[in-house]
Hints:
CATH class of the largest domain: Alpha Beta
CATH topology of the largest domain: Endonuclease, Chain A
Distance between the termini: 40 Å
Number of strands: 17
Structural class: alpha/beta
CATH superfamily of the largest domain: Endonuclease Chain A
Strand content: 15-25%
Largest sheet: 8 strands, mixed
Number of domains: 3
CATH architecture of the largest domain: 2-Layer Sandwich
Number of helices: 19
Radius of gyration: 23 Å
Shape: globular
Amino acid sequence: MTWTTFFIIVHYTIVLSVVGRVMLRPYREPSSRVAWMLVVASLPLLGILLYFMFGETNIGFKRAEHMRHIQTALFENPHLSGIRESFSIEIPNRYHPLFRNAQSINGFMPVSGNQSELMRDSEATIEHLVSDINQAQKHVHLLFYIWLTDASGLKVLNALIDAAQRGVVCRVLVDALGSRSLIKSKYWSTLKNAGVHTACALPIGNPLIRMLFGRIDLRNHRKIMVIDNAITYCGSQNCADAAFSPKPKFAPWVDVVVRFTGPIVMQNQRLFASDWQAATQEKLDLFEQNEYQPVTHDCPAVVVGTGPTERYSAMPDVFIMLIGCAHNKLTITTPYFVPNEPILNALCIAAHNGVHVTLNVPHRNDSWVVAAASRSYYQILLKAGVQIFEYTGGLLHAKLFTIDNQVTMLGSANLDRRSFDLNYENNIILYDQNLTETIVERQQTFIQGSIPVTLSEVQAWATPKLLWYNTVATMGPIL
């Protein structure tokens, strides 16, 4: 046997073993299996390397086991023992499947007695957050995917330093990749020196070594703010200016955030506590405190936290349930639209059934890959009757679902495959006609600042353009 023959045999043995791994991997779409088999077989060595880098949703065995242990332990807290019971608050029966599906993900039950306020814009969000931090008496917990050292980022940072110096316990958790500029700056040590407890979620370390134990692009994309167990915020905004200095040519970044008080705060607190313990090993015992004041406004709501260590397909299941609950009107605002086949079909079915379905996405996207993939779905959606608008006033970064002017979901999750499978996300689903109508009005202002996409326009696209869009979308299952 020659050396050439030996290396050929070894090569094909490795290729076949990796192909077998692709075929045996659970929870993988057939299209993804086919795509990865082609990559592994057609790109010797490089295809195998790419598969182990990006082919499996894996944060590492130790990290995954640690997260599951944390989540189980938190549910053993006696003050959370009721979250697995059936609920009986005032939500119309036709929305019960949606809220029960949400409950099945983390165990949180819908809770009423919440009060909400839609923030005017990104600047107002920062102003309210800083004001709440300035009035904090016991603790401030902040988690952001991206935290920049721009005007907004420094306002929050300085408020935290002041709070820590007057005895408030402040904890800051940021994603190690998304907030790397803050972590590498002098302000990170300034926070620590002032007494603020800091931590990084999913640290990478040496990228080559990290890739041996799990994907480095699985990130904590959540945005959680909790003050004194009494106030929380939920929405799409990172701790940064709307000008967003890393990508200023797409500015302003347009976000939507809602400030909540009431029992929903404790559910966001639990998500923060689980992420904090995963990053620091410190267990927070804050759940016995019940510091929100009774309010007359109802607003039944539930927190939905998803990620690679939660059950498979949790986030896509929520999207499908939201679409299926719409009877008259469904408006979706998202910066990144790369649906899987079930979600695409659900949108088309809703439109065929007479639901007024509107999709609002950015005209200029900061991700050319997402922009191309999104447009590959336009024709089938438009033929089904879905209305599509592309926002021209900046990067529409808000993530919103509104149903029949009654139900809203907002938070950090995009309607794309990263949010489906790779990122830790946090959202709130709520039943409240007043708040939902206010959010629908905000969505309508986005639509008024958009250009409509017509079927005739899409059908007139040149063949090279359509080929490009469809080629990028075909790669979606392996991204």
